[in-house]
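To the team - flavin mononucleotide complex, inputs and output below.
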Amino acid sequence: MKHIFRSLRRRSHQFALRHARQNRFFSSVFYAFFSRRFDREHVGVLQGQQQFSISNGPEGSCSTTLRRNTHRLEKGLIMRPRKDVFALAYIEETIKAYQQSVSHANGQANEEICWAHDVLKDYFDVCGAHPLIDRLRKTFNSIPPLPLRCAPDRAKAFHPYHRNLKAPASVHYDELLKLAERRRSTRWFKQSPVPRELIEKAVIVAGLSPSACNRQPFEFRFFDAPGLREKVAELPGGTKGFANQFPVIGVVLGNLAHYYDEKDRHVIYIDGSLATMSLILALETLGLSSCCINWPDIEEDEIRAQSVLNLTTYERPVMFLAIGYPDPEGMVPYSAKKSTEQLCRWNYLG
Ligand SMILES: Cc1cc2nc3c(=O)[nH]c(=O)nc-3n(C[C@H](O)[C@H](O)[C@H](O)COP(=O)(O)O)c2cc1C
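Output:
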């Protein structure tokens, strides 16, 4: 009986799959009734959006909106030629986010608020006359200035600026190439502890990576405490055979609460990975090696990770990262790379 039921289920699944491939409507029906493989992403994206709204609500910090809109204003400020009046579609939202961020910060201004303040000031200084802008300029000027002592680096101004390009980049191409050649996914490590300061130094470099609208929708969590490290290291399947080798495991955690719309649901993976690459290279310069560990979307693993890492539905690991001092006795795979010809095409339309 069980056998017949299983066979019927498999056949109906295959039948549905054949039709699902034909068009978007049938594929939606398939994923609604025959496969649940996307439903965690659906609920994660929707709950992330809800969290985004809460963050913009009366009790929220408005941080994401402030970051994104400040960035948009800066782009407007550096335009050549710059428009006399710009950002009409979102300046009201930005002022509201700024006001709320200031009151939420409770006198503890951080770099984000100082940056928003300086950019808004520039904006109102250069923007031409317009009833909306004139009204919001008054609102902005009425917000009490931030106490200087609260901002960590308030001697600095957080404006768009000209980079000093007179001196060449201090890292030569050949040096970067050598670093890239030296970096290999490492699975065998010395059993010596890794100073946390070194990892935090690498995070400083990672934190300077580009991210869509400067939202930086990720965080790095590192585990080096005995017991906890092992628990986290065993979450991803890709550590089999060397899960007990690395003294530190990192988790790159994406947060979907930074987005109001489904269109951005993949950005956590893009931004998180760009920052991770910088982190990996920075670690290498500090004598540390690493290995990215895959985090495929597998139901049981997700449930375990949610419980071990205490995650919400809108937080998701982008990948894990094994870190430590490389064991000189341990080998690394050759892992042949594709040629430049394979990776690079010019003016090619497919
Ligand atoms: C996103 C990602 C996931 C990976 N997952 C694993 C993994 O689960 N286990 C593992 O041993 N290596 C993993 N790797 C390492 C790759 O196998 C390795 O990067 C690739 O073979 C190239 O070798 P190289 O990093 O030494 O250049 C992963 C790498 C990336 C970028």
